[in-house]
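Journal club prep — side note

Before the paper discussion, L.F. wants everyone to see what a predicted structure for a comparable chain looks like in token form. Sequence:
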Amino acid sequence: MPGGASPATRETAVPVLLAALEPLRAARADEPCRAAVRYVARIGAPAAAAAPPLEAVLSSERCFPADVYPAARAALAAFGDHHRR
């Protein structure tokens, strides 16, 4: 999904991407899940609902594939203050 995707496309994509992040809850990160992490980073603030599982990855003692950590940090940075309560 290009960074220049329309708001409607982003709105449609976010729920699908959130569903793709579900394996993170079970400490798994298959390739579709890892791709979803990268995509929510590209979407930025409109995908801020993805913040809880990404924050959980960063605070977990479980091991995820190495590429998940920088992608999760990039996504959280892209969300800005939109994910903080």
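L.F.'s comment for the group: The first helix runs from residue 7 to 20. Keep this in mind when we get to the figures.
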